[in-house]
Write a structure and sequence with these properties.
Helix content of chain A: 40-55%
Oligomer: heterodimer
CATH class of chain B: Alpha Beta
CATH superfamily of chain B: Alpha/Beta hydrolase fold, catalytic domain
Structural class of chain A: alpha/beta
Number of domains of chain A: 1
Order of helices and strands of chain B: EEEHEHEHEHHHEHEHH
Number of strands of chain B: 8
Order of helices and strands of chain A: EHHEHEHEHHEEEHEHEHHHHEHEH
Distance between the termini of chain A: 25 Å
Largest sheet of chain B: 8 strands, mixed
CATH architecture of chain A: Alpha-Beta Barrel
CATH architecture of chain B: 3-Layer(aba) Sandwich
Helix content of chain B: 25-40%
Radius of gyration of chain B: 17 Å
Number of helices of chain A: 14
Distance between the termini of chain B: 26 Å
Strand order of the largest sheet of chain A: 1-2-3-4-7-8-9-11
Shape of chain B: globular
Strand order of the largest sheet of chain B: 1-2-4-3-5-6-7-8
Number of domains of chain B: 1
Largest interface: A-B, 21 and 22 residues
CATH superfamily of chain A: Luciferase-like domain
Structural class of chain B: alpha/beta
Strand content of chain B: 15-25%
Chain lengths: ~425, ~260
Amino acid sequence: MRFTWFNLMPWPYLPDDFREQHRSVWVDIPNTLYDPRRGHFVYHEYMDQLEYADSLGFDGIGVNEHHQNGYGLMPSPNIIAAGLARRTSRAAICVIGNSIALYNPPIRVAEEFAMLDVISGGRLIAGFPVGTPMDTNFCYGQIPIITRDKYREAHELIMRAWHEDEIFAFDGKYTQLRYVNCWPKPIQKPHPPIYIPGGGSIETWDFCLDHDYNYSYLSFGGYKRGKLLMDGYWERVAQRNKDESPYRGAFAQIICVGETDQEAEELYSEHVRYFFNRCLHVYPGFADPPGYRTIKTLKAGVLSQLTEDALSKFPTLTWKDLVDDRYIIAGSPATVRDQMVEMIKGLHIGHVFGLFHNGNMPDWKTRHSTKLFAEKVMPQLRDVWPEWKHDDRWWPKPMDNRVQPEKSLPGAERR
Amino acid sequence: MKTTSIETKRGAKVRVLEAGKGAPLVFFHGAGGLLEPNPFLDPLAERFHVFAPELPGYGESTGEEFLDDMLDFALHGWDVVAALGLKQPHLVGHSLGGMIAAEMACIAPNDLDKLVLVAPAGLWLDAHPIPDLFAMLPFELAQLLFHDPITGAALLTGGLDFSNLEALRDFYITNAKQMGNAGKLLFPIPNRGLAKRLYRLTAPTALLWGKSDTLIPPVYAERWKQLIPQTQLQLIAEAGHMLPYEKPQAFVAALADFLAR
């Protein structure tokens, strides 16, 4: 098993009456709620936490891209990843990812990911999301029905730019370039491992299998709801006669570890509820614009996690609901371990993106939960898949003799 | 109305409602498609030879994969006229259809008789942003599209029973397909540069607008008039954006009056 410590980077100062006063945490959230001077400390705290996770032995540290979003302060995850690449040398740096249909020209992603791979010594995991409708369509103005075709073309351009050593011309429908010449190129050959974060579009499964990319299901619904979708994915894997390595799949999970079940509730309840009740307050009209999902997906009944009843439920969920219905995995190390095993086996996954910082959780609690997981849970979960122990197809292969910048930082011994 | 199916030279298969005799009139529907039952095509067919093609991606028409941008849609419009074998028809377009008809008339100004634009899309005024149809929930639409939202809601859904989940899903999928394609011209801002081409119009042109239109409010009519000096505007009372459906008699009368002149 491999564990990546992930921070969505929520804004922790949404007012108590946020839901009553505003229709959405995303797209049209008033930017006057953001305070850049407080933001200074928030970014540093969150980046420190990612570095802390590296020091505790997490396999990866993860960031993602959102726009105009009160629970995701990373319009450019590459900026955060660059900071991490300069302050760590061990963990994989998972950028899950860059919404490639939004970059103009998309060669920019090939370049920036190559830079990150080079600076980090070959530790990059490159994520290529289609992007949520909130980010892609409403914030960045892409026409919903064209988004997937643009994504397809951007992917083709980026992969050719990484693969080919000759300069080539690219005559695309959306991008035309006379001289494609990726400079620099990534350390990992021909390219870093590719992860495709999916919501609920069935085309994404085939896309992953066509290219042998990792399929990452990112939801906040927990593994009971995630199982329906992951079962569909594994069924498709079998139909396509691919091997069933659990490392083909990844799942994002909110995890809260206390010394006891009771301590977990006392410490984390208000922050997890801040996340579900305030941060997931998204106006439903932004969740599924006509044309974003293909007719095939709509007919298959795999509707958006946000358009289903989830949206109406999130605001009222209590700690007990969240724990009992397995939206979150929370409790003592033993409780968390048992539920993690259930989740990992139930979904058949080799990669977990653990969300340890939630909502407005203060730094010390985040570190407490993270440390308990790293020391008392993670070691017991390492060998869930002994038969796939040596499968590293979806993991970075860094240089051996890379720079270790954290060793030369002032106060490094205290980190 | 009889229903025929034609194929354009590009390969789109288009369903066309047809009725009446007299001067040919092609009606281009709005982003919501041709709602059923239709209250204005039959009365119109008493005066004209009416053709109402469905856009690719709407109803039974196919070929949406051929249409990416404004030029594709405008040429498709002329391809339909050619496939129907019509010479210099009147072009009438409602909302999205008005945007397409206006663009067709800019491209080939001598190939039509008269042009009627009914609350057309295609222009944008920063001071009067058009509400974002793509971020609307179904129950919000009637309020925006009709002077009388209660009657409007029934017209929009054809009296569909939304407690029937199967019917609701079909409605949702149809809407996703239609509006998804309309997004090629309307998302995120319904402006594809028409304003800079309207100088080419030579056909006599009329604008018809519902006085209570809150989707594309009548202030837009003033902008159209500035851009097309020869145009005439008629505002119709107690009608919203869905003027042809909400006030079919007044709509047909105004239309026939202008075309007969």
